[in-house]
Amino acid sequence: MSKSYDNLREDFIFNKDEKEYRHAYGEESTDISIATQIKVLREQREWRQQDLAGEAKIQQPMVSRYESVNYSNWTMTTLKKLARAYDVWLDVRFRSYGALVNETERFSRESLQVPSFSEDSFFKIRRTVSRPKIRAAMSPQNSAQVIPFETRQAIKLRNPAQPIEANPQLRLQWDSPTGSKSGPQLVNQAPQEQQESASIRDLSMKAAAAAAGGARNYGYR
User: Fold this and answer.
1) Which one, of 182, 173, 185, lies nearest residue 206 by Cα?
2) Does residue 173 belong to any structural domain of this protein?
3) Which pLDDT score, from 0 to 100, does residue 195 have?
């Protein structure tokens, strides 16, 4: 794999009819790449040959043989053992000779290094999941905004000046003609108490009464 990109490409073009030539070069490149990567991965983890032998459950002399660029008797069983020892994925594919030329150009120690699963940065990215905060039921922080009352009891309006008590704890308060409020309000207090609460802005009782022609009956001018 000492040839440069351009030289190797020209060799394959010049020997395009020599099938044995390119296959011999490809197989030799595979052997060199595997042996070199076994050594690079071991040194990347700062292991000795004895350490790799223990992890792969093989003999130390075999590790020395696997790291030799002259070794070519690879088996899938051997490569799988080494992949498990390094905790990496073994990728075996059929590729084109154009890819071989490109890989030869990029061949370097850095390109052969592969992190183990525990050191893989891909699995160290924290992905936060937004979860809604659930407020405790019936525990409003502002009693003026949320007023619990019995919804099963109907409230009937006869005279806005004299609202009907549908619940001892709930009554309707009607604004006076000169008041600043716009309609009836739900007040969580006794009838004799005076307490200001939020008005019902979406429904104007005054405007509704005036449109119906009943403004005089309700004391509006």
Assistant:
1) 182
2) yes
3) 44
Do 106 and 160 reside in the same domain of the chain?
A: no
The mean pLDDT of the chain is 75
Q: In the structure encoding, which two tokens stand for residue 117, read together? A: 């699963």
| Three-class SS state of 73 | coil
Q: What share of the chain is helix, strand, coil (3-state, %, to 5)?
A: 40, 5, 55
Statement: the pTM of the whole predicted model exceeds 0.85: no
CATH number for position 45: 1.10.260.40
Q: How many domains does the chain have?
A: 2
More confident residue, 29 or 205: 29
Q: Show the domain range for 202.
A: 139-221
What residue type is assigned to position 92 of the chain?
V
Rounded Cα–Cα distance for residues 101 and 1 (Å) = 9
- Mean pLDDT, rounded, for 192-212: 45
